[in-house]
Structure formats: structure tokens, C-alpha cells
Amino acid sequence: MEERIPLVTNDAVVLAILVAALGLIFHTSSLKHPFFQRFYRVVPTVLLCYFIPALLNTFGVISGEDSGLYYVASRYLLPSSLVLLTLSIDLKSILKLGPKAVIMFFAGTAGIVLGGPLALFTVSLVVPEVLGMEGADETWRGLATIAGSWIGGSANQTSMLEVFGASPTLFSQMIAVDVIVANVWMAALLYGAGMPDKIDRFFKADNSAIIELQEKVEKYRQGIVRVPTLSDTMVLVGLGFGVTGLSHLVGDTLGPYVRENHPGLIQYSLDNVFFWIVIVATTGGLLLSFTKARQLEGVGASRLGSALLYILVATIGMQMDLGAVLENPLFFLIGMIWMVFHVLIMLVVAYFIKAPFFFVAVGSQANVGGAASAPIVASAFNASLAPVGVLLAVLGYAVGTYGAYICGLLLQLISNL
Known about the structure:
The protein is an all-alpha fold. It is built from 18 helices and no strands.
């Protein structure tokens, strides 16, 4: 296939396009014009922040694959954002949200473990040749790597590649399925985040604990809000990027140390530098929430953190190429059916325990998207809820290898029927 050269290759220009698009979206969403008011009642702001970069990538204006912006945003802006979003958090109130968040996370894990084999079996009934590959090109081997990505992350995906031995060609095709299907589902979650009350009423869910947390945070903000000075803003920037620098220092030290001296811990992703970056940044923000730094929320800590997070949203969106679906339609069909099973299992569990849609969305994204996108989905409901996404995503790192391995064995069983 001929390599496509994007219209814009300079990352400085790409960043300008993305940030300009974000500015235009937020400007129009704040207008009182009837058209825009009706439009944004139907299309959530955060969904456009994600989808417009995806369209620019699909039509060759920019290239998410060739750009280094996602790496910069995920490694530098995301940790800083997590610090600023968590330094004013009420940790006790988050813990009072109860066990439903954890239950929904594990329901999402079960949905992925069982959904993959069910999807492969369903498609094989209609297209038997999907099971006809041999050796390293067997479809199930590639699907097992998706399970690793959708439960734990890239480190777990690589582990499943090594364990089950998918061929390089098959693995590259599965990466496309992984990225597109996961991002389409994230877009659906962001859309749902714009109407959680309607969904909760439909499922008769109890969202009182979440509303109580949001109201408590808003009341606290109103009590300390003031016009920020340049000094205030620079303190926020210094704290955010200062803790981010510390998180990189710890990650760059502990990741290789674990890999070289404690290989048994690799299965828990403890050799993953990004894992430690997220952990240290979140922990730093939580520790600051017990100090006077918590009052920096009054000068816009979460607002600045949200701005950094939205830039990450745009760089995630530019990773999606909708045209890639046409290259491997059968694999994408399996991926979409797999995601449907994942969602159905989560919705059934949510219905029986009356879990609010917030727990469904964040529990799912903590599995499928991990630490880079779970806080995005959580903050789409309310900026104060971003730490919930981080905490559940960290849980995904811990169980990812086990869940993906079980899923791989079930996929192999389906293929041998």
C-alpha cells in the first residue's frame, strides 16, 4: 500500500491547528445563538474536541502516526493535568462513592475476557474461514493482543504478543482494530457523558453519591474563588510540571530497575515507565490536597488542568483513521462485536446493582483506554471526578496480564472447536 503523506507535517503547525480547533469549539459552545445552543445540546463539546482531529487525520490533513504530539501530551501534559485536577480533591468523599465503581470495573474486565471469544465464535458461524489461518497467523493469536491492550495497556499487549506469538503482519492489523474500535467506543462514552441523567433515569440508577461529591466540590470552589494573578498562575504551572518532572525521574529509575532486578513484577506492568509517571503524578496531587495548595483551586487549578487534558483529547483523536476500517473489515467486525458484548455485560451488571452511568463509562474506559483516557471520560462528567478514572485505570494495570491471558486461552479454545 502506498504511503500517504499528510498535508501538514510540521508538529508546530499541527499543534496550532488542534488548539485553534479547540478554541473555536469552546467559543461557539459558549455563544447564545440559537443554532449553537441547539447543536451543543445534541453534540457534546468534548466529543467534537475528539472527533474533528480524527477527521483531519482520516482525510490526510494531519497524521497521528507520524506526529510526536500524542507522546508529548500523554507524558508531559497528562501528568501535569492530573496534579492540577487532584490537588483540590476530597479523597474521603471519593472513597464514599462505594464499591459500585470497582464492581463495574471488573464487570468491564469480564466483558472483555468473555466478549472476545464470543465475538470470534459469532463471526465464525457466518464466516468459517476466519478460523482457517495457520501458525502465527491464526486470528485468535492476534485477538489475544487486543485483550492485553483493552484490559491493561500497551505493556500487557506486548506481553500477550510474546506469549501467544502472533505474526508481525497479523499484529499490525490488530493494532489498527484496537485503536479504531477503542476510539469509536470512547467517542460514544463522551457522547453519553453529555446526558448522564437521562441514562440514569432509564436504568433507575442511584447517582446520589456522585451528585453529592460534585456539589461539595462546587461549594468549596465558590468559597475560595478569586481573580488569579500572574503569580498564582505561575505557581500552578510550577506545581503541575514540577510534580511531572518528579514522576518522570521516579519512572525512569524504577521502571528499568524492576525490569532488570525483579522480572516477576513485569506481569503487573511495574516495569512500565508510564505506569510510574501516572502513579507519582496522581499521588503528588492527592498529597497536595492535604496542604494549603488545595486552595489553589480558587485561582483555577482544575480549569488549567482541564485545558491541558483537552489538548490530550485532541491528540488522541488524531490517532484514529476511519479509513483503516476498509482494509480489514472482518477483523473490525470481530472487534465491534467484541465491544458490544463488553458493553452488554456491563449494562446488565449496572442494571442489577443500579450503578450510575458514570461508573459504567469510567469502568469501561479504565479497561479499554487506560490511564491516558479514563480521566478524560471521568472529567467529561465533572472535572472533580478525574481521579476516579485514574485510580480504576491503575487497577487495570494490575489485572491486565491475568485477564488477557485467560481471554487468549478462551480464544484458542474457540479456534480449536
